Each structure stands twice: as C-alpha cells, then as structure tokens.
Protein 1
Amino acid sequence: TQDYYEVVTGQLDEVIAQNDLWGSANICVSGIPERCRSEEGCLAFAGELNDLSQRLERQGKLLSFHPRHMDIIPFGGRNSLELIFENTRAEMQLVLDIYHLVRAGLDPVDWIHRTKGRCDLVHFKDFQTGPDGKEALVPTGQGRIAWEPIFRACAGSGVKYGFAEQESWQKDPSECLAESYAYMVAHGIEP
C-alpha cells in the first residue's frame, strides 16, 4: 500500500491491519511533511523513517519511501533525497518514480544504481509536453523519457518489480495499460 507519510503514521494500526488483510508486507509512504522541508528537517525526517521502519519490521512489514519531484529540495550542492537515503537504515527501501526523478532534474539511471539493494520497486511513468506547454502523462515509451538505459539499470541493479503508472489519461486507461505493457515486453521487461 502507499499513502502520504502523515496519513500512514496517523492511522498506523489500521494501515498494518489493512496490509495484513491483503497479505502485503510492503508499506510505502510519500511526501515530506511541511515541517521537515529544510536540511535539518530532512535529517529529522530520516530519523522518523528509521523509527517507523523498525516498528514495521517488528510487525513483519517493510517500509518504503516514494519521493516525488516536489520532495526533492536542493540544499547547496546536495538535496533532500540524498540526505534521506544516506541517513536511513539499509533495511528501508526507496520506490523510485522515473517521472518524478526526471522532473526534479535527477538522472534516474544514476539513482537506480545508487539505490541498488534498497530499491525493489520502480514506477515507470512517462510524460510529454503538448503544444500548449502543458505536461500530460502518457503510456510508457510514448513520452520524453529514454527508457532503454533505465530498463538496463533496473535489470543490473536487481529491481524486482516495475509498475507502469499513469494517473491521468487522454484515452481509455485500459488501452494505455496495454500500450505500456506491450512497450515494456518489447524492450525485454519480463511479465
């Protein structure tokens, strides 16, 4: 399951029970709370994630953090994602979302390699910019992202699952899913 950090922590017993019911061992949180959007705050947030990870581990669960582009905050020559990754326990995972990494100006291939062993799940989300200058999410392989090096990096880094993800559509969502699936299989991603 995945929800905002403060939603999960505010309803933790219910989230654990829900995951137990569904047979899920993975609980993912996203969103750096507003109170933690400074360099010191990110370090404190990393500590909170460590505590949550340990608590969930005692319940047989694995914690993951899903950074979004608006969560990747520059601090001089570093950023919030680096601080969180470097200051969280090795047992905690990151769920990398390729769209959000690209939108934040980060190299997804570098981040896939950097998080080797701590990134089992990757979201394959693509986008394009229309003539009006607005972004639109599109099926994997139909947008601006160069996927082949990303797929190779995932295979070489031990990523276990890649999810075609698209929250908005210009056509039937089932058609978008089929197109993403076909593209991924054609480029060596095994179902």
Note: The mean pLDDT is 96.
Protein 2
Amino acid sequence: MLQENSNYIVNNKNIKLQQVVSIPISLFKSMQGKYFVGQTEILRVGNGLSAWAGLVNPRNSGVNLYANVFTISNFSDDYLTAEIWLNTNLPEKGIVSHKVSPTNTALRPLPKNKVDIRFVKSTTMLPENGVNVYERIVPPNTTLVGEEDGKFIEPPGGNYVIVIKSSASKLDKVIVAFGWWEKSIY
C-alpha cells in the first residue's frame, strides 16, 4: 500500500522512500533554457499620448508564448492606467527591445528567444482589434507586478500587449518588463 504526504511517497511493502520535489514552472523552464526576461526602453505617456509594450509572437516562430509576469515601473507622480490586450494591432513601427536575456545564463550556447518584446514609446494610436481583458491602476513612483503564471498562451502571430495611459498634461516616464517561456509547437 502506498502512503503519500507532501514530501515523500512510502511503499510499505518494500519500505523504500522516494523524495518528491516540487519546483515552480518558471524555474523548470529556466533550467531547460526556455524562460526569458526583458524590458522596454523608457516610454512616455500623458498629454494625449499613450505607450504600448508587448510580447509579440512572430507568425513563423514555431513556438507558443506563455506570458508569465509583467512589471510596470511608474517614475512619475501621477496615477497611470494599464490596459492588458490580447491579439491586438500593435503598430508596425514598434521597436524590438534588445534588453532581453534567457534567465539561465549557464547554458552554452545561450538560448535565443523567438518571441520579441516590442514597444512604441509614445503614440496617439489606440487598439482597434483584439480584446482588452483587464485594466490595472499603476500608483505614482511604484512598480506594479502582475503574475500570470503562464495562463495567457499566444500562438504564432499572437501577442500579449499592455497599453499605458495617463491623464496628466505633462509626459510621465514608464518602463515595462516581461517574463515568459516558449514551447515548440512541432
């Protein structure tokens, strides 16, 4: 007969102990070289301008994107609004961030991300397609952390985008960061 507790599985017939280890999915994916982190450059919002930042899965990537975590650092004295959108029309002129790294830097060669962080520093353009799944308020001089645990899964051609807005008459500074993993679809 097998007995189970949180750390061991015991087989009473043979008296063999087997330790069971539970690790977070982000650590597991990092160990495999499939977890990545990165951030945008400084974005500027306010005075009628918003900014966009997102995880964009190219059509030919061959991977599904699992959005795990985002952070929004508000370097202003104003409250900001962050809209989270799925599969929206991120502007074509979005800049690809080069501030991206695998979290497991012990692997050689270093794993290369297929999903991009893209951003638009300031724009009057608002999303026309996709779904605004929720919004968050970002307090002044604060970093807001949203842990999604990989539940937002975007196929090739999909995206997970945050649109930042401010009602301030001056421009506010913001940086957005993401953590995600990638899984081959083949």
Note: The chain has one helix and 15 strands.
Protein 3
Amino acid sequence: MNTRRKITLFAVIGILLALPLVALAQGMQGNNGQGRGRGNMFNNRQRLQMHNCTSDQIGMGYLCNLPDAVPGDLSDEVIEAMTNGIMDEYNAYNIYQAVINQFGEVRPFTAIQQAEVQHILAWEMLFNRYGVELPEMPAVDESLTFDSLSSACTAAAIAEVANFDLYDQMLVTLQDYPDMVWVVTNLRNASEFHHLPAFERCAR
C-alpha cells in the first residue's frame, strides 16, 4: 500500500472512531445546549433504552451487572416501595432545580442534580422491566426559596440522609428481587458516600 493510500485509510478510520464521541457530546448537551435539566434527562433515557455496558458513559455502568428480573406479579408492597423510591428522586431533582433557579448554576447542585437524573433513569428501567406504570414527575415548586446557599446545602444534606434511610428500609421489602436490591444499594450508597459529603462541605 502506498503512502497516500495509508494516509487516506487512517483518516477514514479516525473519522469513524470520532463519530460516536461527537454523538455522545451532542446527547449530553441536551435540548438546551448546556447538558443540564429535563432535556438532558430524556436524552439519557433514550440511551438507556439501548442498554448495554456502554451505559457507563452516563455513570450507570453498574447496570451492566444487573441480575435477571424475577418472574411473576409484584405485590402492592413492592410497587409502593418502587413508587416511593422514584418519587423521592423526583423530589430531590426538583429541590435542586429550585436552588439553581434561585442562585444560578451553582455547585454542587448542578452536578448532583445530574446524578439524580441517573437515579431516576435507573428507577424507570425497573418500572419498565416489571411493566409497572411510571408515576408522573411533579413540577418544580416555584415558591421554594432559601435564605442562603449554605442553608440550601444544609437542607439538601438532610434530604440525602432521608433518602438513604428510605432505601435502607426499602431493601427489606425488595429482598426477594436481586435486581432491585442491586439498583437500590448503588443509589443509596451514592447518596451517603458522594452526595451527602458534598452538601456537608457546602453547608459549612
């Protein structure tokens, strides 16, 4: 192969390898071009529907090891636990959006809100997997305000503690569903060991 053909071949290969990265970057920008908010949530949902181990690109690689679904109908207690779980994540997302509406694109709220998107998507996957109707996401409470960013961080820290306490109780209810236990354990650990310390630092 002559030098010109080699250069052309390498150029084509380079373009083909770059295309998935471009698509990923565009997807992360979302509908508003900033990679934040509800538009980004829907883009992530579309990628999750094509679930495979590349889902690690949106921070959900643990789903690659998800145990199989358990056959049979779910009890009302299990469905209630699932509903409580996703509603708590909806609530967290909306609270962080209220903070962002008041104070602007401030950390750690922007970063942790995107983590909440991933938590919501994980729950949506379980709802879809078991054929359970997905609860509607409430609107952001526009009247919710805070005296300062520090007080917002304190409130968020308290909410994260309540979140992983809820998940600890839920693990008992869901113990016969290894896939749900796998997801819930990962979500509660993210709240305790990643989100909570970030908010505690912010509250000081």
Note: The chain is about 70% helix and 0% strand.
